[in-house]
Design brief:
about 100 residues; about 75% helix; 4 helices; mainly alpha; globular; about 0% strand
Length: about 100
């Protein structure tokens, strides 16, 4: 695939990531802190917020892995799974940055 085609696809995915984040942010936590849900789950489970995001995001990565092994995706297309995985990785990065890690 040509570089320009790859860049166009990536831009489309990133645009969808931001749109999805905007749509789902109502469920992620408060308007002031999109990481609130992860922090609350971490407190309830006596776990670190980074670990919670990692676990929740691993569901998407596992489904993508299963797709690469030939399994059919039934409930959501591959593109949606990839968008969700990118968003979880970005949220993980934001949490690490907020917690003071040198990212």
């Amino acid at each position: 695939m040509k570089k320009d085609d790859v860049k166009e696809i990536m831009q489309s995915l990133f645009d969808e990531c931001l749109q999805t984040l905007e749509e789902k942010s109502k469920d992620y936590g408060s308007h002031f802190d999109l990481l609130t849900n992860f922090k609350e789950i971490a407190r309830a489970e006596d776990e670190k917020p980074l670990r919670i995001i990692s676990i929740m995001g691993s569901k998407q990565l596992n489904t993508i892995r299963n797709f690469t092994k030939g399994r059919t995706l039934v409930t959501e297309p591959l593109r949606k799974r990839i968008v969700d995985a990118i968003n979880y990785l970005c949220l993980l990065y934001c949490m690490a940055k907020e917690e003071g890690y040198d990212v």
